[in-house]
Amino acid sequence: MSHLAAFDAAFAKCPLIAILRGVKPDEVEAIGDALVDAGFTLIEVPLNSPNPLESIGRLTKRLRDRAMVGAGTVLREADVAAVADMDGTLIISPNANSRVIAASAARGLVSLPGIATPTEAFAALDAGATALKLFPAEAASPVVLKAMRAVLPPAVRVLPVGGIAPDNMQPWRDAGAAGFGLGSALYKPGFSAEQVAERAMAFVSALQV
């Protein structure tokens, strides 16, 4: 199965990306287990975390076929190669750098660049993006997403990221959000695996309403 097909399958199971910004390698496996046990299938370790490549490597080995793992805050083509070397398959960015997107697509990796306007969205898709990250969602709104959805191809998945909580997902879903990236409402540095599990289950439950 290709990485893109695996992403489609994982996304269909649970369209939530766990963003573990600040996680440390010595705690990441327990947190990964907690997320998968709660139903998560997509996990991101931002590259501005401590020793992020080690954390990605640990997660890919531990979770194997149970979840897709990759990096966030990917800003350079060299980062794409470094993540791929650790068997990471998700390349997630806060911006829409066409070179990073193209480098990801060339390797068959899943590319989720950050966009805030239709211009950025179409440029990212032209470069080979797999799906789009609406970021920061706090600076947008469901109304903005609905307007964007009116011009984007129907099959394009848009995931709001930033300020997402279990109690505010529904308006975004009604506006056409296909899924979400979850940051500090799910994980903050210092959270235990048990704390992450509790929050993860709350998100999964909200998604099922």
Write the SSE topology.
Elements: H1 3-13, E1 16-19, H2 25-38, E2 42-46, H3 52-63, E3 68-72, H4 77-85, E4 90-92, H5 98-106, E5 110-112, E6 114-115, H6 118-127, E7 132-134, H7 142-149, E8 158-160, H8 169-174, E9 180-182, H9 193-207
Parallel strand pairs: 1-2, 1-9, 2-3, 3-4, 4-5, 6-7, 7-8
Helix pairs in contact: 2-3, 2-9
Structural notes for this entry:
It is a single chain. This protein is α/β, with parallel strands linked by helices and 209 residues long. Helices cover 45% and strands 15% of the residues. Strands 5-4-3-2-1-9 form a six-stranded parallel β-sheet. Strands 6-7-8 form a three-stranded parallel β-sheet, with helices on one face. Strand 2 (42-46), helix 3 (52-63) and strand 3 (68-72) form a beta-alpha-beta unit. The two termini are 31 Å apart. The model has no long low-confidence stretch (mean pLDDT 97).
Which descriptors would you attach to this protein?
209 residues; single chain; 3-stranded parallel sheet; alpha/beta
In short:
With 209 residues, the chain is α/β, with parallel strands linked by helices. The chain is built from nine helices and nine strands. Strand 4 (90-92), helix 5 (98-106) and strand 5 (110-112) form a beta-alpha-beta unit.
